[in-house]
Amino acid sequence: MTNHTSLHTVILIRSEYLKAEAAAIQAAFLVSEKVQVSGQYWYIIVRAS
């Protein structure tokens, strides 16, 4: 029996730490979404591993 399990790494990064790197990070990872939590912006990054 084969197991087709997909593992993902979910990373939360404060948007203020990204700045110029944001576009490169979004391009390098599978999914990148900017969300606002408690008045601060975060990037949710999901990478297939």
Could you please describe the fold and organization of this structure?
This protein has 49 residues and is mainly beta. A 3-stranded antiparallel beta sheet has the order 1-3-2, covered by helices on one side. The two termini are 21 Å apart. The radius of gyration is 13 Å and the shape is globular. The chain has one domain (8-48). The protein has one helix at residues 22-28; strands at 8-14, 31-37, 40-48.
Keywords summarizing the entry:
single chain; 49 residues; mainly beta; three-stranded antiparallel sheet; 1 helix; 47% strand; globular
In the residues, how many domains can be counted? 1
* Number of beta-strand segments: 3
Tell me the major beta sheet.
3 strands, antiparallel
Order of helices and strands: EHEE
Which class do the helix and strand fractions yield?
mainly beta
Share of β-strand residues: over 45%
Instruction: Determine the N-to-C terminus distance.
Output: 21 Å
What's the shape?
globular
- Percent in helix: 10-25%
Enumerate how many helices there are, as a single number: 1
The radius of gyration over CA amounts to 13 Å
Mean pLDDT: 65
Low-confidence stretches: none
- Report strand order across the widest sheet: 1-3-2
